[in-house]
Amino acid sequence: MVFQEHRLLPWAILIRELVARHQPGVVLATHNVDEAIAIADRILIMRDGEIAASYRWPTHAGLRQILLHELGVENDSRAA
């Protein structure tokens, strides 16, 4: 499944554009895997207040499935 630009909320598009233009450091917490992949260049999985996993995007093929597995999501109803 490829994430589609039009599915991003307006605030997420704005953040991505601002980061591209000004290149600030940004920390964004989300529970939405697709948002994380669309916006971030690094994704951390937190578990019990600690960093449990760290991924750089786009270096990991199949990152969405990897993240869903890390989060304990076994049945992804959105997978094609």
Report a brief summary of the structure.
The protein is α+β, with helices and mostly antiparallel strands and 80 residues long.
% residues in beta strands = 15-25%
Structural Rg: 13 Å
Note the total helix count.
Answer: 3
Residues in helix, %: 25-40%
User: Mind summarizing the main beta sheet?
Assistant: 2 strands, antiparallel
How is the largest sheet built, in terms of strand order?
A: 1-2
What is the H/E string?
A: HHEEH
E-strand count: 2
Category from helices, strands and their pairing:
alpha+beta
**For the residues shown, what is the average pLDDT?**
82
The gross shape turns out to be: globular
User: What is the first-to-last residue Cα distance?
Assistant: 6 Å
Low-pLDDT residue intervals, each spanning 5 or more residues: none
InterPro entries: P-loop_NTPase
Task: Write the SSE topology.
Blueprint: H1 10-22, H2 33-39, E1 42-47, E2 50-56, H3 63-70
Antiparallel strand pairs: 1-2
Word description of this protein:
By secondary structure, this protein is of the alpha+beta class. The protein has helices spanning 10-22, 33-39, 63-70, and strands at 42-47, 50-56. The chain has a domain at 28-74. It contains three helices and two strands. The chain has a two-stranded antiparallel sheet with strand order 1-2. A hairpin with a 2-residue loop joins strand 1 (42-47) and strand 2. The longest helix has 13 residues, at 10-22. InterPro entries: P-loop_NTPase.
